[in-house]
């Protein structure tokens, strides 16, 4: 189970493709490349949306999805000094990252993850994978209805349902006969 928790932590870092948590902890910048068919920015709603064939490349992993939405919160210090006539964009701070539609992650070491929706809330430090989430590490895999990973506590939980119970498959060394 420790291997799955480590993998989930790595997945969280990939989901933070903007590098917010990773660079704050490591103190170094890493190149993050995002490609998509369309990018839109809504200054009023404080939202950046990548749509269509979204591909995120990080030195440790790649992520694919149909759509990624980044929700921002306004910088309070700038908001207080900004006049009503000031129409300049305020990119704010990242609050939440949501990947939707055939979300797929592949780590450089071969570990993979799939789900329909992955939401990371930077404030709470919780990553929620929904829509038939599956994590694999070689022959090991875990799946359920929802996978929650609590980044700050470095713990995870897999929640099943009657339609999609928790299923964990772990390989163990073959026992030899004496």
Automatic annotation (TrEMBL):
InterPro entries the record matches: LPS_export_LptA, OstA-like_N
Annotated GO CC locations: cell outer membrane; outer membrane-bounded periplasmic space
Name of one Pfam family that matches: LptD_N
Any GO MF annotation of the entry: glycolipid transfer activity
Record GO biological process: lipopolysaccharide transport
Signal peptide: 1-23
Every Organic solvent tolerance-like N-terminal domain range: 33-154
Keywords: Signal
PANTHER family: LIPOPOLYSACCHARIDE EXPORT SYSTEM PROTEIN LPTA
Protein name: Organic solvent tolerance-like N-terminal domain-containing protein
Species assigned in the record: Desulfovibrio subterraneus
